[in-house]
Design a protein that fits this description.
236 residues; mainly beta; six-stranded antiparallel β-barrel; 2 helices; 8% helix
Amino acid sequence: MKISYKYIVIAICIIGLLASCNTLEKASTHGFNSGYYKMKSENKNSQNVYLDITNEQIDVYHHIKKQPDKQIFLTIPLIKTDSLIVNPIIFKKQSLDIDITSIFLKYRPSVYGLPAQLTTDLNTALYTGWRYDSYQIISNKDPLGKNSYKINNRGYDFGVFAGPGTTLISSFSTRNNRSDEYNGMIIQGGIAGFIEFSIASFGFAVGYDYLLSQDRKIWIYNNKPWVGLVVGIALN
């Protein structure tokens, strides 16, 4: 499968539009913030709720007719308290995720009988995908009888990326068709999956590179697939 230059440029334009539109205002940040969630507690079905989250507590409202109910039906303190321990509760949400991504390691499979290559060339890309978050509220009681609550976050997402980068053009990567070496500019694109940790995310990517210089005709990796390790920093 080959990806032409024009399709990669189109992908970059689409991602740029997503980053600049009002969707960003509705997309989640990398954290547990006020908003709409699905709540699942022990022996109960999932229900739509709205959370008002502060440093001291989480106020939970029923979500009725696309609006939060006016009455709080559950408050979860985030500081030590004498209140009874609640059963484990999980809050889940899905949201658009937009990151600046760097592919800090690429594995290029063997082509034309030449050895496989592992590269660490400088590159960045804009990534957009669909993110899934799960926040579990766990309660504990200390020896003094005080209750405290811990929030465990698990998240992952999948999406597409595109952006610029550099790569070494040499006699090896051109099958001896070029004797000198230089760093060529590339446009890269592909798909990626991330595991989320607070403000950063780490994952794997599968992509293709398109060399912008005329040496693309002799560069052995032009439009050839690679597998990489990626890190992302949230924009939204």
